[in-house]
Amino acid sequence: MKFSTFIFFVLFFAGCEPFSYKYNIIVTEVPVNLGALNSAYDDWNSDLPFPYERSEIWFSSNRNSYGGEFDIVAGRLDLSYHEGHNILDLSTGNEEYVASAPALLPVINSSHDELGPHSFLTGEDMLFLYATDPGEVFEIRFVELTRWNYGTGQTVSDPLPVAGLNESGDNLYPFIDEENRKIYFCSNRDGLTFDIYSAQYNSPISKQSLIDGDIAHITKEIVSSGYDDKCPYIYGDFIVFASNREGSYDLWYSKRYHDEWMEPIKLQPAINSEYNEYRPVLFQVLGVDLMVFSSDRPGGKGGYDLYIVKIGNYLN
User: Fold this and answer.
1) Domain residue spans in the chain?
2) 107 Cβ contact list (under 8 Å, min separation 6)
3) 167-190, pLDDT tens digit by residue?
4) Which of 24, 97, 163, 173 could form a disulfide with 116 if both were Cys (CB 3.0 to 4.6 A apart)?
5) How far is it, in rounded angstroms, from Cα 104 to Cα 126?
């Protein structure tokens, strides 16, 4: 079974930088390509299990098959803030140091497509969710990785379907909310288009509740339209997702008010382009709100590439 790890490594500078220091990738309110993390093939659908200055990043890519089926690959995304210059900086380095990749990726990846990873930490263990298409449709599966941040002593459970989510249609892009009681995902179970759904659990989400399907109810979210709405990601009272309601896929957002999502708004043209934008992931590092997403806009390495942008102006 094939797998490949792709790492970002950066030296963290505190205080004043030497005059000769050269910035590599500077993160601003305008999206910037994630450089060496990308390939000449499609790189998209990312996830950061533990956002920090030095973080793992997981994403789907068809580089291993030279443009064929998608696998999940791993890398490093490392940032440093240079206070004197007010610059948030990224650098690239070795393709190593993702400790959990050798244990996890051979179990997940197959001769089919693996898309949309999402990880949820439970102490030293990690629940890793993704979608795959072993039959005619995509289904959401998961594995449990013990000791996720250790180089030795890790175990990975066999992949299992998330009970109760895959009853009909294609089901993809799961996301567990911060209260650990709800899974957001997208599905075309009601017809030809994809909508955004949430599954409310009766108890905190765990390996056992995913096996048992301990779901109180599944709801189609109001942010859905008559077009394809995919890849939901929740960040506090903010939801961002991909939709083709205006032609190509763009990134849209909504804010929650009194437990209700407001009318979705398209992110500004500085982020969306006339091409496709897909699978947004929001996180905070060094006090800065950031978003990683994928796009097939010109100027990348080929196909879909991963981009990063500051997103804090939308959250106020």
Assistant:
1) 25-176+200-213+273-314
2) 143, 156, 158, 159
3) 999 999 999 999 999 999 999 999
4) 173
5) 10
